[in-house]
Amino acid sequence: MNKMDYMKVTGPNYSYVFNFEEEFIHQDTRAWMTKHWTNCFYFCGIYMILIFGGQHYMASRPKFDLRGVLSLWNTLLATFSIIGFTRTAPEFIHVLRNYGLYHSVCIPSFIEDDRVSGFWTWMFVLSKVPELGDTVFIVLRKQPLIFLHWYHHVTVLLYAWFSYTEYTASARWFVVMNYCVHSIMYSYYALKAMRYSPPKWISMVITGLQLTQMVIGCAINVWAYQYLELNQVECHISRINIRLSLMMYFSYFVLFARFFHKAYLGGGRSRSDKKMYSNGNSHIAADYSNGKLKAN
Q1: CB-based contacts of 107, cutoff 8 Å, min separation 6
Q2: What pLDDT is stored for residue 232 in this prediction?
Q3: How far is CA 59 from CA 95, 142, 277, in A?
Q4: pTM for this model (two decimals)
Q5: Which parts pass through the membrane (predicted)?
Q6: Fewer CB near the last or first residue (10 Å), C or N of the chain?
Q7: Residue 152 annotated as catalytic
Q8: CA 222, 249, 174 angle in degrees (round to 5)?
Q9: How far apart are CA 137 and CA 43, in angstroms?
Q10: Given 149, 152, 182, 283, which residue is catalytic?
């Protein structure tokens, strides 16, 4: 589908377009991200040194409370995620409704004509850097730091940066899903940090959404691979991207499912697990790191 065909249908319904969105130039950001692609490896390296070095440093020291800072941090991330979702969902819905599944998976938006979604997609990728700061609260508050937590942070940052440089069309699915889940999840974390007590079923819903996100992520990659194999349709996603994304989403699903089974169903729960799941740490989406276990 060419640009003229795309423009025949009324574009996404944005109630208002801000000046900074209108001035967004996707070619410049893509060029910058491509030129500085090694930065994400530096960020991940520094992150790993800080969190494990920090754990060693804190081992013989009293934990920090940081509840006020944590409340502010989660509130800011919740607000950012809500805004991001409201600014990217219209384009996603517009494409899916007017052009169907194939277009949503294989054809990137003409971002020069949809700068709103383009800007917030870029913000989504960049946000994976400050989100590394989630783990600082775990380390300073001396809470359990599990493999899934830091593995998720590292792989999401690397994959998101890589996909942006390729303008991967299927990324619209991943961006909207992630913004949506984070909107609910960080709002929940903020309430917990403020000493509110949301019912446990909310955390179960969040965990369910996270697992659903992994299943949909795998399905999108399978569909993209099938489109590529047809060799008769245009599909803007590389085979290496599909392989990396599929491995990432599948590994997340396995790890989150295992966590869900232990946290909610009590399967194979050891003495250390019981201690970990006590005092409000009994759910995958909440106070296991006080709100720092999340899905892509």
Answers
A1: 1, 95, 99, 169, 234, 235, 236
A2: 66
A3: 51, 8, 20
A4: 0.87
A5: 40-58, 70-89, 145-164, 170-189, 201-226, 246-265
A6: N
A7: yes
A8: 80
A9: 18
A10: 152
